[in-house]
Amino acid sequence: MDFFFYPSSVAVFGSFREGAIAREILRNIVEGGFDGKIIPINPRGGSVKVAGESFEIRPKLEEPVDTAIIAVPARAVPPLMDEVGPLVKGAVVISAGFSEVGNEELERELVGRAGKYGVRVIGPNCAGIFGLHGKFFGSFEVRVKPGGLALISQSGAFGGAALAMGNDEGIGFSAFVSYGNAADLNESDFLEYFADDPNTKVIALYIEGVRDGRRFLEALRYASSRKPVIVLKAGKSESGARAAASHTGSLAGSYDIYRAAFRQAGAVEVGEMEELFDAAKAFEMYGKAGKRVAIITNSGGPGVLATDRLERLGLQMAKLSGETVDELRSFLPPQCSVGNPIDLIADANYERYRRTIETVCRDENVDSLLVICVPPIFVPGEDVARAVIDARCGKPLVVNFMAGELVRGGVRLLEKAGIKNFPTPERAARAIHWLSLR
Amino acid sequence: MDFFFYPSSVAVFGSFREGAIAREILRNIVEGGFDGKIIPINPRGGSVKVAGESFEIRPKLEEPVDTAIIAVPARAVPPLMDEVGPLVKGAVVISAGFSEVGNEELERELVGRAGKYGVRVIGPNCAGIFGLHGKFFGSFEVRVKPGGLALISQSGAFGGAALAMGNDEGIGFSAFVSYGNAADLNESDFLEYFADDPNTKVIALYIEGVRDGRRFLEALRYASSRKPVIVLKAGKSESGARAAASHTGSLAGSYDIYRAAFRQAGAVEVGEMEELFDAAKAFEMYGKAGKRVAIITNSGGPGVLATDRLERLGLQMAKLSGETVDELRSFLPPQCSVGNPIDLIADANYERYRRTIETVCRDENVDSLLVICVPPIFVPGEDVARAVIDARCGKPLVVNFMAGELVRGGVRLLEKAGIKNFPTPERAARAIHWLSLR
């Protein structure tokens, strides 16, 4: 499927009038810096200018391209397959109006004709795809930053919202695919593909339901054996399952069966949308983490909240070795607590944070570190961020810098260094929990 | 306690050098627009300029003021009480170095001397207080916007972080009090006070432990009978309780007893920091909400996620009346789903949202509404925001606009109209859940 996510040439079919979907996709491809050939196609011809670049609109495709992005009226899609079939390897069908509104026949025709030419189809009724490391933004959704997360979404709108929120959360993406009605390629195909994609470090999957449970379990098991797979299942409750059936036509099936399958396959199931981001952030940084956690904080309260959450999630507060405690006592002011949480108190500066992190990190009883920083009054948050960045520590280290504007500078520094921030103590604790499930 | 939260004159004791705590507090008071008398006091005299305003520093207090804010070294505090006792009604003691580091004796002396003059004490070892509707920012913490939430925090740092994050979350505050060691006034006193404060619509309380359980239960019951009280209890787990003991010296006690007390008193207990904000936002808007919820969305997936969460929390998906369904069918495009969730599909505009909200709101089977909007492709998010604002609906209505930058304009419009946004479907669902507990 490299022709989808790393194409060297693409054709976009549809209307290129102001505001039309095909034009928005073309604009995204051009603005995203795609460096292969781009051919806009519409029977009426003409020209279109997006992002300062002018394109001649060809009336039809007359040369081979890797991928066709198709946003023409539904009934025009199957005939188009006969036209482009001999020239393309893959087709992303954005157009709606197929099985999701009862037109099963039209969808079968689309897949049948594509199959004749060996063309693989994503969609129909989908939001398109991104291949970030191929600099290919083949969707009208908001562009995101490159990174390690491949997002596979059965719901286009969920996917679009997740991309935009991912930008806010500092998540880097390797790919995005909205697979809509899954007439040809489905979640299992993408799981297998991204399992082997070297630019993808972690896979996140939003599903309402799958059709072939056995194949899904196999694909999920294979992908989970290669890298972390995060799953958000919608339609878990009775009413939710009914809603899913009317949305994607999914027979959501018994949630118990899904849950057992996720566990059996070694996937990491999250309970809600925000957790999907948090787990993705954690796994973009680390492959896994052990269960014995040390908390380092400059404020008692948030340390207690993190402790509560860790213990509730089945993690353990690491018991620091006598050596570690002695070493901490040797350089920390006497008011600091060297239990766990280790409270560096309000005036903790660069040096105090850095030395503490390094000392604790060397302790064999500690598997992972949770570093909390509330806005220091007389110490710039940037200093604490630098301490976290500079500290020599080879163990998973999750940070919770709060709050808001007061730590924004520090959070920005951390992000530049590839350290993602979790905005509350509990979300940071949960991040370690996801990591410990691998 | 109006002299604390609506003072007409204040004196600030401490060092006014650049970076000193007393100077930061003075700056906050001046920049916050306090319109009463402000007297900086330091034996060395001199003058200080903050926020463009110059003040003569008096060597001692020589006239009556409502409140003294004290940030002098710990051992100087009890003698200061004899000096100011006859002239002030309340003292906020920021200074640390009392019972929290084992100096119980010094703390008893402080309270004893203050008591002799009938002076009430907040602290010591606290971050200070805000009285937003008295335009009084008597703390070094970040200033916040005025509104209906009174935040009572045993942990100063938690309080400070919560204020800064509250700004980000669009929360409006009536007051903030960090009560530190609670040598004189404690959580129960503040609960009773804010229960009767006309500017406070909702009270949020962060506690690790309380000393007088019986009094606390009474105060909590009284406050909850007047307005919503949200409680976040830290130190719930075994390790968390140990951490709390070393932090605030609180004997956290059995969490089961606390939980029972919260329930018995009618308080709304939340599980973590983010939930405290979400519950506060919900209660700043509405006093309570019924359990039968209608979801209106322009995207299936998020509707399913909200449904799952609502059902999990024990809420019900409202069964729309035949009349409502007929009316919806009369103006909605046929592709829309008029089940519940009601799916207005991707091109839903101002009119479609507004009419749907009004129609659903009239249904007697519906107690509350959850309105979801993912970034519309060809409809500005601002239009959907305006529809929510303009719709005539007297029932609790909670919104989830996602995602990030794409809906920021709409979210800003909503906030101006007093409608707070919840960033994920699940957080919006949880907001209705908190409201239904009252």
Describe the structure using short key phrases:
elongated; 21% strand; 16 helices; 438 residues; Rossmann fold; 19 strands; 3 domains; homodimer; five-stranded parallel sheet
| Main pleated sheet of chain A | 7 strands, mixed
Whole-number total of structural domains of chain A: 3
Task: Please identify, by name, the CATH architecture of the largest domain in chain A.
Answer: 3-Layer(aba) Sandwich
Tell me the radius of gyration of chain A. Answer: 25 Å
Strand order of the largest sheet of chain A: 9-8-11-10-12-13-14
CATH class of the largest domain in chain A equals Alpha Beta
Q: What is the β-strand count of chain A?
A: 19
Oligomeric state: homodimer
Determine the CATH superfamily of the largest domain in chain A. Answer: Succinyl-CoA synthetase domains
Q: What fraction, in percent, of the residue positions of chain A are helical?
A: 40-55%
Main interface: chain pair and counts = A-B, 75 and 75 residues
* Silhouette of chain A: elongated
Determine the N-to-C terminus distance of chain A: 27 Å
Strand content of chain A: 15-25%
Structural class of chain A comes to: alpha/beta
* Low-confidence residue ranges of chain A: none
